[in-house]
Write a structure and sequence with these properties.
The chain is of the alpha/beta class and about 375 residues long. The protein is built from 11 helices and 14 strands. The strands form 4 sheets. Strands 2-8-7-6-5-3-4 form a 7-stranded mixed sheet, with helices on both faces. It has a 3-stranded antiparallel sheet with strand order 9-10-14. The protein has a two-stranded parallel sheet with strand order 1-11. Helix 1 packs antiparallel against helix 7 and helix 8 crosses helix 11. The longest helix is centred in the last third of the chain and has 36 residues. The structure holds pyridoxal-5'-phosphate. The site of pyridoxal-5'-phosphate has 15 residues, from helix 3.
């Protein structure tokens, strides 16, 4: 049993990078001004926000005026989808998304259905990929927004965003991308991707919790969802979280700059995990074999309950995640695993291991050694 926590749940959240904390600290204490105040202390805050906005814009190949700081990834998804839908209500009432989106997207579409909107939930193949031709076929003269995630949070599959973007651009349909899982792992160029709106969340790339980014291409009409002051160019009211904004920009810069060093290492650790864990009888990889996030290794084991695997790993100091959640006594597999077409005997036994920059070869070997007896024991117990 290891002394140290082996954290393999970086898709859920990450620890704040100490360099990000250092950048944030002054804005909690000495630089506490309100960015709307016109005296020097307030202007310092506004200057910090302006710098952060320029940094984020440069990283996304966007203009600073196209970047809005918001309260989390979920808020960014909500603002993009509700903001675009309500602004286009006179034009049409049709939304297109995929069946494997995060609940911040799916539940927002469902909410809009109460206001007369209709949603097409596109299927995915057995690897979790959306077919761009399906997007083209689903577009009608009523379509006001297409929203497809860059990379899936459970199975790590990367979607063909640039291709879908080309289709949307040709048909003049606004295209939103939930890039929350991609933000720390894949270069983000909104021009090359043909994306009109893009959502990010800072705590998924070693930034602070409670901070999100929404990129909004110039010319997009978006109805704000939070009324009050005119912060964020009228797109989101509320006194700016200066420390959070500075931390978000710093974290995104570090994450994007470090992709070339970190990706090969994470990919090697991921592939070793996959190789080691697939030696377990009746196990399979979920998600795409190659078009997947460099840090995501997700599996399914026949005839086991995911939550039981997690509890056993936790006893050994390993933090992981499952796509099946126990609701009112029965275990329901996630909508993502159901959409892949996994049979129930398999979809109940899912395990998601998501690596981060602090993980080591030793962490990976510990899990590869620990897991087979756990699965064997649970199968023996009928769990
Ligand atoms: C985590 C996550 C979100 C939500 O971000 P929060 O900042 O936690 O609200 C949205 N979409 C995806 C794909 C995520 O992984």
């Amino acid at each position: 049993m290891s002394e140290r926590l082996i954290y393999l749940d970086h898709a859920a959240t990450t620890a704040l990078d100490p360099r990000v904390l250092d950048a944030m600290l002054p804005y909690f204490t000495t630089e506490y001004g309100n960015a709307s105040s016109i005296y020097t202390l307030g202007r310092h805050a506004m200057q910090a926000i302006d710098r952060a906005r320029e940094q984020v814009a440069e990283l996304l190949h966007a203009r600073p005026t196209e970047i809005a700081f918001v309260g989390c990834g979920s808020e960014s998804d909500n603002l993009a989808i509700k903001g675009m839908a309500f602004a286009a209500q006179k034009k049409g009432n049709h939304l297109i998304t995929s069946s494997i989106e995060h609940h911040a997207v799916l539940h927002t579409c469902q909410y809009l259905e109460r206001f007369g909107f209709k949603t097409t939930y596109l299927p995915v193949d057995s690897y979790g990929r959306v077919n761009p031709d399906d997007v083209a076929r689903a577009i009608t003269d009523q379509t006001v927004l297409v929203s497809i995630m860059y990379a899936n949070n459970e199975i790590g599959t990367i979607e063909p965003i640039a291709e879908i973007g080309r289709i949307c651009r040709a048909k003049k349909i606004p295209f939103h991308v939930d890039a929350v899982q991609a933000g720390g792992a894949i270069p983000l160029n909104v021009t090359e991707l043909n994306v009109d709106l893009l959502s990010l969340s800072a705590h998924k790339f070693y930034g602070p919790k409670g901070m999100g980014i929404l990129y909004v291409r110039q010319g997009m009409r978006l109805l704000p969802q939070l009324q009050g002051g005119s912060q964020e160019r009228g797109r989101r009211a509320g006194t700016e979280n200066v420390a959070g904004i500075v931390g978000t920009a710093t974290a995104l810069r570090l994450a994007q700059e470090e992709i070339p060093q970190i990706t090969p290492r994470l990919t090697a650790l991921r592939d070793r995990l996959i190789e080691g864990i697939l030696t377990i009888p009746r196990s399979r990889l979920t998600g795409h074999p190659s078009e997947r996030l460099p840090n995501n290794a997700s599996f399914s084991f026949e005839g086991v309950e995911g939550e039981s695997i997690l509890l056993n790993l936790d006893l050994l100091g390993v933090a992981a995640s499952t796509g099946s959640a126990c609701t009112s006594g029965s275990v329901d597999p996630s909508h993502v695993l159901v959409a892949l077409g996994l049979p129930p005997e398999w979809s109940h036994g899912s395990l998601r291991l998501t690596l981060g920059k602090e993980n080591t070869n030793e962490d990976v070997e510990t899990v590869i050694t620990a897991l087979p007896p756990i699965i064997e024991k649970l199968r023996g117990l009928g769990m």
